[in-house]
Amino acid sequence: MSAYVISEVDILDTAAMERYRALASPSIMAYGGRYLVRGGAAETVEGTPPPKSIIVVEFPSMARLREWYASPEYAEALKERRTALDRRLIFVEGMPSS
After folding, report:
1. pLDDT band, residue 51 (cuts 50/70/90)
2. Which one is predicted more confidently, 21 or 49?
3. What are phi and psi of 31, to 5 degrees?
4. What is the pLDDT of residue 72?
5. Given strand 85-93, what is the order of strands in its sheet?
6. In the predicted model, what is the mean pLDDT of residues 50-72?
7. Among 6, 36, 68, 89, which residue's Cβ finds the most Cβ atoms within 10 Å?
């Protein structure tokens, strides 16, 4: 069953964000992840406004997603994340196949 990372992001430092992306993207792909949404235009229809950027990444399973998040490859990106952006990060399981 697929699993998803949903990030609600406020960019703090554009240069640090570019360094973060350069490290995060290959680590995501190495663990079978793929971007579904990467900062496209968002419209709030109910509730409070979303942050400036929303990212959704799909992984083949929750286990694989957790492996990626704990990986040494992503650990390097996390070092940049501290100064690059403020975010809320959510892991969610997808629907079972019918």
Report:
1. low
2. 21
3. -105, 15
4. 96
5. 34-38, 53-59, 3-11, 85-93
6. 93
7. 68
The answer to whether 44 and 91 have CB atoms below 8 angstroms apart is: no
Q: What is the model's pLDDT at position 41?
A: 83
Mean pLDDT of the chain: 93
Q: Which residues are CB-contacts of 69 (< 8 A; sequence separation ≥ 6)? A: 5, 91
User: 19, 12 in Cβ contact below 8 A?
Assistant: no
Please give the helix or strand (H or E) that residue 6 lies within, else none.
Answer: strand 3-11
* pLDDT at res. 21: 94
What DSSP assignment string belongs to 62-79? HHHHHHHHTSHHHHHHHH
23 with 80: CB under 8 angstroms? yes
